Amino acid sequence: MTGINKITLVLVALFASTAGSHALAADLDGAKLFADKTCVTCHGKDANTPIMAGYPAIGGQSAEYALQQMKDIKSGARKNGQAEAMKVVMQLVSDEEMVALAKYVATLEYKPGMAVSRLEKKDAAPAAAATPAAAAPATPASAPTAEAKPADSMEEQLKKIAAAGKTDAPAAAPVAAAMPAAATTTPSAAPATGEKPAAAMTGKSGEGKNVWMAEGSEREAVMDLKPDLKNGLEVYEVCSGCHLGEGWGKPDGTFPQLSGQHKEVLIKQLADIRAKNRDNPTMYPFALPEAIGDEQALADVVGYIESLPMNPDNGKGEWAEGTPEFTKGKQLYADNCVKCHGEDGMGKADKFYPRIDGQHYNYMLRQFEWIRDGKRRNANPEMVDQIKVFTDMDMKMVVNYASRLPVPKDDVAPSTDWKNPDFN
Ligand code: HEC
Ligand code: HEC
Ligand code: HEC
């Protein structure tokens, strides 16, 4: 296994501790937040060993600058480069927490030469040599420490600037004002639902095209492999950082539930994400062969996920049975969804139609919108066709209904308190 699993150990008990704290920034422990909020998964434990070349080293960054970047990435004001990868995670971080994190990051030491991706280092050794010259000069507040970036990050930025014919350097916001503002209590942001999807990340194979059934995909090779569940558990460790040890994801829809999903669907989605036929910038580096292994590893982790019981209480839409919205959603579902996802929401494994009963409402809403609007490029074209006339309200009502489909008792865990013994 790679070093990623080591970081995961820090992450295991993670989201349990993230629930709604309204403490003032001064009371918050930046180091703990940095681990709890998954920052370590991408930026590294020391904030200077990013998981991917192209992800920034942020240790030693100026607090004002770091805070502004976090805010901008969260709000979508900054959507250049790979900001999309971090955006989902920022929905879990409040203003107060951002201040604590920014202060913490600023206390860390910038280590020249550390900021080289572990993954790329392994595969493309020469890139490591391209580390920017050391000797970081004193950084003016609110200006990015350009020297603190890994080589590829610089290169990407430069390419962008050249392509756009203009820089998108931060607009040196009035940071002094930004700091105290964070002391006011802002409720933790809502999940990334309903947001207009931002530009797809740059990619290799499937970029920009709709590829529902990619040819020569790993999907075919993985399907018949016999899973090794012991290795599956080992691989799943890194996944548990976001999807949780139980595979339940988050009811707020940030991370989908994986438990209960058909093996065929899991394999197709993972193969699609790896091949960049489905954009998932948050998860992409964790799904790569360099991170988790080859086709056998995919079969193993999917085998492991299959062994997990489902969440008895998934995130649901707001309209209970008996409301007009529920009834309208039910009708829409019968007319438009049943033929593929089934009356019970079970989908069809052999056709790669996902199971959607028990899935979190906000996650489904996001996917539905992306499928409707062509942003989820591995979607079934027939489904796109079927739902393209849906208004936003139709969409909410039908997904509300889907989120309230009863899940068979045999498929769910004995209680909502159930914990996966492998992780507890
Ligand atoms: C899923 C991966 C991922 C996670 C998790 C993540 N980040 Fe990031 N972060 C990125 C990427 C990628 C960028 C660069 C975005 C770009 O290309 O413009 C970035 C940029 C930043 C920047 C701006 C750096 C600069 O020099 O402009 C800061 C500050 C930052 N992250 C802090 C955090 C903190 C704090 C957390 C935890 C709350 C976090 N990140 C979680 C991937 C991640
Ligand atoms: C840094 C967080 C993160 C990590 C680590 C992560 N995922 Fe994900 N995963 C996500 C997010 C976010 C989505 C949903 C993306 C979207 O909204 O399109 C997702 C989606 C998925 C899906 C598609 C689910 C569906 O219903 O279509 C599968 C399958 C999946 N992940 C499996 C895994 C596996 C296996 C691992 C470990 C090898 C893993 N993930 C690691 C964040 C993560
Ligand atoms: C022609 C068949 C078809 C129809 C009709 C259809 N779907 Fe789908 N749906 C699919 C397939 C196939 C996928 C997975 C696409 C992929 O592989 O990325 C999917 C994906 C989804 C997802 C994302 C699931 C996940 O785990 O990421 C949701 C939510 C969804 N459909 C809801 C609906 C709803 C609600 C309707 C009716 C309004 C509907 N679908 C109609 C075939 C269909």
Structural features, described:
The chain folds into two domains: 4-181, Cytochrome Bc1 Complex, Chain D, domain 2; 218-423, Cytochrome c-like domain (Cytochrome Bc1 Complex, Chain D, domain 2, Orthogonal Bundle). The chain is built from 21 helices and no strands. It has helices spanning 4-11, 30-36, 39-43, 63-75, 83-90, 95-107, 118-123, 125-129, 151-164, 175-181, 218-223, 229-243, 263-274, 284-287, 289-292, 295-306, 324-336, 338-341, 361-372, 381-387, 392-403. Helix 4 (63-75) crosses helix 10 (175-181) and helix 13 packs antiparallel against helix 16. It starts with a helix and ends in a 21-residue tail after the last helix. The relative contact order is 0.12. The model is unreliable at 1-22, 114-152 and 165-206 (pLDDT under 50). The structure holds heme C (HEC) (3 copies). One heme C binds at residues 38, 41, 88, 235, 238-239, 241-243, 255-256, 258, 261, 266, 269-270, 280, 282-283, 286-287, 292, 301, 354, 366. The site of one heme C (HEC) has 24 residues, from helix 3, helix 4 and helix 5.
Structure in a nutshell:
The protein is mostly helical and 424 residues long. The protein is built from 21 helices and no strands. Mean pLDDT is 77; it is low at 1-22, 114-152 and 165-206.
Topology record:
Layout: H1 4-11, H2 30-36, H3 39-43, H4 63-75, H5 83-90, H6 95-107, H7 118-123, H8 125-129, H9 151-164, H10 175-181, H11 218-223, H12 229-243, H13 263-274, H14 284-287, H15 289-292, H16 295-306, H17 324-336, H18 338-341, H19 361-372, H20 381-387, H21 392-403
Helix pairs in contact: 1-12, 2-6, 4-5, 4-6, 4-10, 12-16, 13-16, 17-21, 19-21
The structure holds heme C (3 copies).
